[in-house]
Amino acid sequence: MGLRRIIVLLIAVIAAGGTAMYARSWIEGQQHDIGAIAAPAPVQKHEVLVANSDLAAGIFVKPQHLRWQQWPTDDVPATYVLRGVRTKEEMVGAVVRSRIATGEPLTDGAVVKPGDRGFLAAVLNPGMRAVSVPITPTSANSGLIFPGDRIDLILTQTLSPNEAEGNARRVSETVLKNIRIIAMGVETGDDAEAGKNNEKAKTATFEVTPGQAETVALLTELGKLSLSLRSLAADGEAESTVPIAEADSFTWDRDVSRVLRSGRISSRLLVLRGSNTEDVQVQQGSK
After folding, report:
1. Which of 109, 184, 199, 217 fits a 20 to 30 Å CA distance from 72?
2. Are 109 and 100 in contact (CB under 8 A)?
3. Could you list the residue range(s) of the whole structural domain that residue 263 is in?
4. Which is nearest to 240 in space by CA: 130, 126, 145, 146?
């Protein structure tokens, strides 16, 4: 009887220990499951391209206007520019269709890219017109003028001689002030790499009022046009400044040449003496 009792006690102890271990394992499993349910799953985030500042309609998108911003995966529509899938450079040089607020994602529908239909019309401010003029590397600052810059337009023309003057006169005048360049040749962006072609541009396109468009059309028939680049420091509000269509200065040839001011202009005179002719140089204005 003593041995049987001992065996029964051992069996009872072993059974109790197994039950305790099973209970502990079950409790730990339940706690792990509860913890897994309570802890939120980490949200995977991507980065989308957003506006770094408020972008007004009609302006060219520049690199400093853009930044990448984290965005929840389930909040990324297909129209957003997703980092790793597309690049920031795809939006640089595009024109904003309508105002984009700071932090607002950029979409293809929010901008118009060069080459897209309606691009030039999107560049223009309401009520303005686009007009082009022929240029040369010299008249356009050797390709250093870019779309978005502001210039004054200078006309240089030669006036026919009259009896009083005796010689043709040349005069240069500022005919349009503070007008915006929207294209140099076919280039519409201000990227320095793309701007290498500006020196080869044969036309410059301006943003002007309807009345100024008529003025520019006539100016191309009167003489040579030159572009005078305006300082950004002086025109901090240039993008909202209405261009001025009135000339406020002009310069005559005699204002810049001492020879013309002195009146000592040489000319040639053909003298007939019987059957002989002589070409004589005459110094006008000499005493």
Report:
1. 109
2. no
3. 258-287
4. 126
Q: What is the pTM of this model?
A: 0.55
Please indicate, yes or no, whether residues 136 and 228 belong to a single structural domain of this protein: yes
Structure tokens belonging to residue 92:
């640089």
206 and 110 belong to one structural domain = no
| C-alpha distances out from residue 155 to 41, 111, 202, Å | 70, 36, 17
Domain count, the chain: 3
How many angstroms separate the Cα of 69 from the Cα of each of 48, 49, 77, 104? Answer: 5, 6, 14, 10
In a domain, 15, yes or no: no
Tell me, what amino acid is at 160?
A: S
Instruction: Output 275 or 94, whichever has higher pLDDT.
Output: 94
Closest CA to 75 of 102, 101, 42, 43: 43
Do 209 and 110 form a contact (C-beta atoms < 8 A)? no
**For residue 210, what pLDDT is reported?**
92
Please report, as a single letter, which amino acid is at residue 214.
E
Average pLDDT over residues 64-88: 85
Are the C-beta atoms of residues 100 and 66 closer than 8 Å to each other? no
Domain edge (last residue) among 120, 143, 161: 120
The answer to whether position 183 is within a domain reads: yes
Say which amino acid occupies 169: R
